[in-house]
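Lab notebook, bench 4. The sequencing result for the construct came back, and we need a structural model before the next group meeting so we can plan mutations. Quick request posted to the team channel:

Model the 3D structure of this chain.
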Amino acid sequence: MTETDRLAALLPFSAECTAAGRERLRRAIRFLALAPRTPLLQPGDRVSGAYFVEHGSIRVHYLDSEGREGTLYRIEAGQSCVLALNCLFARIDYPAWAEAGEEGVSLAILDGAEAAVLMREESAFLQAVFAQVSTRLYALLQSLEQAIRLPLPARLAHALLDLADADGVVALPQERLADHVAATREAVSRILRELGSAGLLRASYGRVTIIDRDGLSERVLR
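Done. Here's the predicted structure in token form:
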């Protein structure tokens, strides 16, 4: 795959940009590959570019008052980080932690100064940024609502449904699941046993297999 084809696959809106805009994108983007759980951003960092995930994922999380992690949202292939975009254009510091997902990540970083020019000169880029912001902002608000409103069992059920692959498998140890929902490993282990006893899933070392998606979804709504 040529660099042009790679950019076109990652940034479909580039086809609607002018020739000058596509050339600016090509010159202003660099690709980066990170191993699983490699830190990318932390609170107080200045964001110098726009991040677009090519393969893998980025996990954006926070710490609660007791120092436990909680996932705000995940950025997957074809998506960008709404917090980074906001910080870049508003010129404010990043407010959370961002790290490569469990499978690592390959991403493209668009230079911030060039992104500002594209915002002014390329309507296709502007529309793509607004689409990313609106979509990811909704996901972020959902995550915050869950953290405030939902009890831990419902938050864990939602996280499992979100993290599961097409076969219903979540290949994460319980300690990492606890990080996603701002809980202790012991609390997650207890809830997994309860969900297993209800016939909703099967938990083993480093792996959870969802047996009844509908039944687990009902737990989120309770």
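The domain at 3-148 is CATH 2.60.120.10 (Jelly Rolls).
Will bring this to the meeting.
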